[in-house]
Design brief:
Blueprint (H helix, E strand, L loop, with lengths): L13 H26 L3 H12 L1 H4 L6 E4 L5 H7 L9 E5 L2 H11 L4 E5 L12 E7 L8 H11 E12 L4 H23 L4 H11 L3 H10 L2 E9 L4 E8 L4
Parallel strand pairs: 1-2, 1-4, 2-3, 4-5
Antiparallel strand pairs: 5-7, 6-7
Helix pairs in contact: 1-5, 1-7, 2-4, 7-8
């Protein structure tokens, strides 16, 4: 199987792709939240809330070890924290883009989460140490999807849960409207506000190149996960992939 991962325009090497993605997100960090909420009409807030609700049971356990990986500016981290009891074990929030992580830490630093600058493909965590790994709109930017799934699997405890919230490409009439918006409107607005050409051309391309739900579920199963499923959100514009690491390591 051909390895899949984020590939910014003109880059085929995994190492260079990861560096380009990190530099791109660092460059747009100051405007990232504004553009996200504007371009999604704030529907992204509902997606984070729904994803966190899916894991309410593990989040309610004060001793659960929880990681938000590719946390960006921390909106998913905040959604997870809202379901944590008082005095619970801190959530780890990891990202390799320092400017994004710094902005996230300002949101969640005093709310019960710890910011860690690290690469999602090389988590600085012991094997079988986490009860939940969640990621929102960051998995798509990994240079190697299979390696990311394997690394998450390594870090999860047997029985631990995985949640990947990602964009998708809806079909039918909604899909046509979505494609026009994503390919024409979004890059233009992003360029106008951000003042940069590349990042908001990269976004629709990265979504278009991301595995479709059926293929993504196969990648998850191949990495050793069980109970793999996908729940579409908002006509399939986004969706939550969930899975469990088997009880036997």
């Amino acid at each position: 199987m051909t390895l899949r991962g984020a590939k910014p325009a003109g880059i085929d090497d995994e190492g260079r792709a990861a560096l380009a993605v990190r530099e791109m997100f660092d460059s747009i960090a100051p405007r990232y939240d504004l553009l996200n909420h504007l371009l999604s009409s704030n529907v992204d807030r509902l997606w984070w809330w729904r994803a966190a609700r899916r894991f309410k049971d593990v989040l309610a356990d004060p001793d659960a070890a929880i990681l938000d990986v590719c946390c960006g500016t921390g909106d998913m981290t905040m959604a997870l924290l809202r379901r944590r009891p008082s005095g619970a074990r801190p959530i780890l929030a990891i990202d390799f883009a320092r400017a994004m992580l710094s902005r996230g830490a300002r949101k969640f630093g005093a709310r019960g989460a710890v910011a860690v600058e690290a690469d999602a493909l090389h988590l600085p965590l012991p094997t079988a140490s986490l009860d939940l790994i969640a990621t929102a709109f960051g998995f798509r930017n990994l240079a190697n999807y299979e390696a990311g799934l394997r690394e998450f699997h390594r870090a999860l405890k047997p029985g631990g849960q995985l949640g990947i919230l990602e964009f998708s490409t809806p079909s039918g009439f909604i899909g046509k409207i979505y494609s026009f918006y994503f390919l024409r409107v979004l890059p233009a607005v992003g360029r106008m506000i951000c003042g940069k050409e590349g990042p908001y051309n990269y976004l629709p391309n990265s979504v278009g190149n991301f595995p479709r739900p059926a293929e993504m579920l196969e990648l998850m199963r191949a990495a050793g996960y069980e109970e793999c499923s996908w729940q579409p959100y908002t006509f399939g514009i986004a969706g939550l992939y969930t899975a469990t690491r088997g009880a036997v390591a």
